[in-house]
Amino acid sequence: MKKIILFLAAVFCLGLTLKAEKAYKPSATYQFATRDTCVLYMDVYNPTPGSDLTFEGHQKPTILFVFGGGFIGGERSAERYLSWFKLLNDNGYRLVTIDYRLGLKGIALKFNLFHLLDSAKATKHAVDLGVEDVFSAVNYLCAHAKELGVDPKNIVLSGSSAGAMISLSSAYEISRKMESTKALPKDFQFAGLISFAGAIVTDLGKPAYIDEPCPHLLLHGTADETVQYNKTQLGKWGMFGSNVLAGIFREKGYNYNIIRYHQHAHDIADNFVPTWPEQKRFLEINVMKGERRRVDTWSDDPTVPSWKAATLGSLYD
Questions:
Q1: What is the pLDDT of residues 8-66, one digit of tens each?
Q2: Closest by alpha carbon to 204, among 241, 176, 174?
Q3: What is the pTM assigned to this prediction?
Q4: What is the DSSP letter of 44?
């Protein structure tokens, strides 16, 4: 009987927690850009009152988050993210979540050999739109830094799945000083980047960074074929995943961490709370303390849940 009572109490408390997380709301919402087809908004979640805003004397960064959804759907403050948002706020981090244009919505993609190049071009166009929207959000944050409590030199970019692809491409374009970066404040650089199952889609061949990019944390399942952990390449066109990017970073001596989740598929794109310890150490040591702590490790941690996640077929067929 005692065990039953404890179980019912745990279920009741869990229900209250989930209800509280479902009701978790942003501190404010702002319009940051107007496009021909839509208006783009950002939600700002301020740190929880009383939380520690510093780590060993270093100010904690603002996290700029780009949601996932295969470039066909998703929401900047979807319910599945809220427990992670609250975790960040409770740990003293300000969070900004943004809209971006869904460049593949309504477009039929095929991934057989005859249509692979067309699909790659369409995907890159979707990423390019997302990068443009991220840079617009950065401009807004920098222009309104004082009222929002944001330090323009202390912004960490983060994304999930499609959002991770946009995030990685944003950092890559800054490294190469591409035309798109002219929209950014002069000499702007992110303080760090956290990628939940991301990759770079490019028509320039294997990514070749020019300036050293900001510190990267790459979280990826080794069995992920939705957003490639390794790569898919046709000539200079390709999708280059975390395994390839880590190899480049290791060879160049860049500041990076990669956690390779053994036999996980695309579920890592939504494994925010279970991977918090790795995020926390990266933010504290690599970003705030500025140490060149390089971690390249495999994880078979049973506390990181695995489930059947979206595949290319289920998204676009």
A1: 334 443 443 444 456 899 999 999 999 988 999 999 999 999 999 999 999 999 999 99
A2: 176
A3: 0.91
A4: E
Total domains in the chain come to 1
Contacts of residue 198, Cβ cutoff 8 Å, sequence gap at least 6? 159, 161, 163, 164, 165, 167, 168, 218, 220, 227, 241, 242
The pLDDT, as a whole number, for residue 6 is: 34
Question: Pick from 157, 43, 59: which is nearest to 96 by CA?
Answer: 43
| In a domain? residue 197 | yes
As a whole number, the mean pLDDT across the chain is 91
Structure tokens, 274: 């279970």
Assign 2 a pLDDT band (cuts: 50, 70, 90). Answer: very low
User: Please, which pLDDT band fits residue 212 given cuts at 50, 70 and 90?
Assistant: very high
> What is the extent of the structural domain holding 211?
23-316
Element counts in the chain: helices (H) and strands (E): 8, 14
Q: Are 62 and 154 in contact (CB under 8 A)?
A: yes
SS3 assignment, position 240: strand
CATH number of the domain where residue 257 is located: 3.40.50.1820
Residue 62 within any structural domain of the chain: yes
To 10 degrees, the CA torsion angle through 167, 171, 177, 178? -20
Closest CA to 313 of 102, 114, 111: 111
Strand order in the sheet with 231-234: 199-202, 237-241, 231-234
Instruction: For residues 11 and 5, give the distance between their C-alpha atoms in angstroms, rounded to a whole number.
Output: 10
Asked if the structure places residue 215 within a domain, the reply is: yes
Task: Assess if residue 10 is contained within a domain.
Answer: no
Mapped onto helix, strand or coil, the DSSP state of residue 157 is strand
